[in-house]
């Protein structure tokens, strides 16, 4: 016997992070009982996003366009480039600080055991970008975890080899924490007191 | 400037119960980064469910078919009818107890202030069903809240007027609680020790 549409929906909702069977069931009932239009809109938006949201070819952040709004903006300072691990980190910095430079989104961090090396993080693209000569400071905003620090070290070398000054967010971001969850005040302070990275 | 598809997706996800902006953002990033196929499947299932899941014309529970699988099953005892407020309550009883009778889903409870009266709960359909003469016991499993108790009282009168014996779940279900959240053991016990309702 095939599963009913309701059962299929409950199962499909579990693809969402942090949603177990019980939550999925509540969500399905809620949509069917009270939010059919919202559910239809979610279905349509989800389908469009899964198909059409790709990556900016300049910064690798999510973007529908070939080049994202930030990379395409003439108002941003092209001499500053901030490297983050994820789109959520980029958003956190954009919302918490007054930063007006550009970004580069790794979509991960160096993790040899998981097979994630420089190629997977687009570091060839980043190296080429630094080679172009416009970037003066590379703000390395990877997370203060073991892998994030190793990635930061690698990025600093990459920058120095091309005459670009690497800097790192000031302490204030709790060690072992995830940037995405740091409160705005702390993040803003840490961003403002970033220091040049020493060899 | 129109919102990006990513922003639209984050906004659309907030239709889900208990999902605020931050959770919606995490969900959107998670799907885009790691679950494109799961996201597509969710979109398709959601669309199909919103369009095609209706109500069983016998019991008012959610169903794609005109008559749901439980109502259509020849293995169920047609002399027992259990009335619940919501599909989630029906599922909780089905999973926690050995009940083999049929159900009737009110999709709500009497709440005159909200304009929910007997018609909104399909009580004409229920009265007609009791009139048919097959049902011998009406198990009233509305929630033990003020409105649930008032609904139970109304249902008991409806049953007695048609020569059907009304019963109510035994105490054990915490007062003021929601059936859906009661642990299986308690619910199973309460269901087993249901007692006839007195006038
Ligand atoms: Zn970009
Ligand atoms: Zn049914």
From TrEMBL, chains A, B:
Gene3D superfamilies: 3.40.1360.10, 6.10.250.240, RecR Domain 1 (1.10.8.420). This is Recombination protein RecR. One of its GO terms (molecular function) is DNA binding. May play a role in DNA repair. It seems to be involved in an RecBC-independent recombinational process of DNA repair. It may act with RecF and RecO. GO terms for biological process: DNA recombination; DNA repair. A zinc finger (C4-type) spans 56-71. Belongs to the RecR family. It comes from Thermomonas haemolytica.
């Amino acid at each position: 016997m095939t599963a009913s549409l309701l059962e299929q929906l409950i199962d499909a909702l579990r693809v969402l992070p942090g949603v177990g069977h019980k939550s999925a069931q509540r969500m399905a009932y809620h949509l069917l009982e009270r939010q059919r239009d919202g559910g239809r809109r979610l279905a349509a938006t989800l389908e469009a996003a899964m198909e059409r949201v790709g990556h900016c070819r300049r910064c690798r952040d999510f973007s529908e366009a070939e080049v994202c709004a930030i990379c395409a903006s003439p108002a941003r300072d092209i001499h500053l480039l901030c490297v983050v691990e994820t789109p959520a980190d980029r958003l956190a910095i954009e919302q918490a600080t007054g930063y007006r430079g550009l970004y580069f989104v790794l979509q991960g961090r160096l993790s040899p055991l998981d097979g994630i090396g420089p190629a997977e993080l687009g570091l060839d693209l980043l190296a080429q970008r630094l080679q172009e000569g416009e970037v003066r400071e590379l703000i390395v905003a990877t997370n203060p975890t073991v892998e994030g620090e190793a990635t930061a070290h690698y990025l600093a070398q990459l920058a120095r080899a091309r005459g670009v000054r690497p800097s790192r967010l000031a302490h204030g971001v709790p060690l072992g924490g995830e940037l995405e969850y740091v409160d705005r005040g702390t993040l803003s302070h840490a961003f403002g007191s970033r220091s040049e990275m020493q060899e």
